[in-house]
């Protein structure tokens, strides 16, 4: 009897995990015990399926990582594209981006957590790090433009300010709990207040 | 070989690592490849010493972790104690703590990095998580007191504000480089400006 048999009857005598469910479980395991320390056998064991059933969905462990990281990065990149498209002044773009990024982090928490732990140990990880750097550079350019507009304080270097803002945003993955007492929209308001207006009364 | 031997060259034809140097290398390896994935053999190999030479300094891998985590936690707890002792109003305590915590993170970066990755997989890790929680609760109480003083905005929950401030501070371990272009004191100024005054011009 496999895990899936308990929820819904399997149709071909095989557990009925779809690609998305395999991805969810894999990302959870990667986050819990580390990507490098997790084998395809661990994953198959956790899902209660054979390794060949897993290979039906993904060619390799690395392919799972690639899809998960792409999901996190695409979310952040879309938030940035939307912010730029929706606003003409840089300060408003930055505010929209902060709100959008908090939304991505709370909605895709496990995949963003995985992204934030990537250290560049493989081509897939190197590629994800490159996309993160490009994202950071685009954001820093917006911060710089907002400084030129006189809307963001110029006494903090734009690259440092970008890192501080995203340091605060990214830290949400450590403690935010979906369905918990903190509402994601209110959290975005809090982050906007803290970063733009400051905590001083 | 004992810690006291360290300042002087090894006298018995063995590599002259002292306890502190073993700790440094171990923490670097733990951060690079994960604590659970690092064996005492890996560590001995990295140092070019035998396992028994290592056991002369530390009883176990877990003992190394315990010392490293205690170093990070003691630094943060001392920063908090100093801040409370040096200032009577909560808002000034909070500012002093932010400055002190940035100092600890930049000075003990590798050990704080290790602390931030602890997930509670052993008694040593559980104990470190408990101390982190106690620290967070003491900081949240100061934030709450500063709100009561009218110095910190009250429209953000004190526990959330504490997490946002320390989210920003803790993120420094990801990118700060000792001896790099960013001076630790200026960085503390930037973090204080960003968290208290906000980025808005």
TrEMBL record, chains A, B:
PROSITE patterns: HTH_TETR_2. Residues 16-76 form the HTH tetR-type domain. It comes from the Bacteria. The keyword Transcription applies. Residues 39-58 bind DNA. Keywords: DNA-binding, Transcription, Transcription regulation. Pfam families: TetR_C_24, TetR_N. InterPro entries: Homeodomain-like_sf, HTH-type_TetR-like_transc_reg, HTH_TetR, KstR2_TetR_C, Tet_transcr_reg_TetR-rel_C_sf. The keyword Nuclease does not apply. PANTHER family: HTH-TYPE TRANSCRIPTIONAL REGULATOR BETI, HTH-TYPE TRANSCRIPTIONAL REGULATOR RUTR. This is TetR/AcrR family transcriptional regulator.
């Amino acid at each position: 009897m496999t895990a899936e048999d308990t929820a819904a009857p399997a149709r071909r005598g095989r557990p009925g995990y779809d690609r998305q469910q395999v991805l969810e479980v894999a990302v959870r395991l990667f986050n819990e015990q580390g990507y490098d320390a997790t084998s395809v056998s661990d994953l198959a064991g956790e899902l209660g399926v054979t390794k060949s059933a897993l290979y039906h969905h993904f060619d390799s462990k690395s392919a799972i990582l690639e899809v998960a990281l792409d999901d996190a990065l695409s979310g952040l990149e879309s938030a940035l594209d939307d912010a730029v498209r929706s606003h003409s002044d840089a300060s408003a773009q930055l505010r929209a981006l902060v709100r959008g990024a908090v939304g991505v982090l709370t909605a895709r928490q496990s995949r963003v957590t995985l992204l934030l732990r990537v250290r560049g140990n493989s081509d897939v990880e190197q590629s994800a790090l490159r996309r993160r750097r490009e994202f950071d550079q685009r954001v820093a350019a917006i911060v710089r433009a907002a400084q030129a507009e006189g809307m963001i304080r110029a006494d903090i270097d734009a690259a440092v300010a970008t890192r501080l803002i995203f340091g605060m945003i990214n830290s949400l993955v450590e403690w935010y709990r979906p369905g918990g007492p903190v509402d994601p929209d209110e959290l975005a308001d809090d982050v906007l207040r803290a970063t733009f207006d400051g905590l001083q009364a």
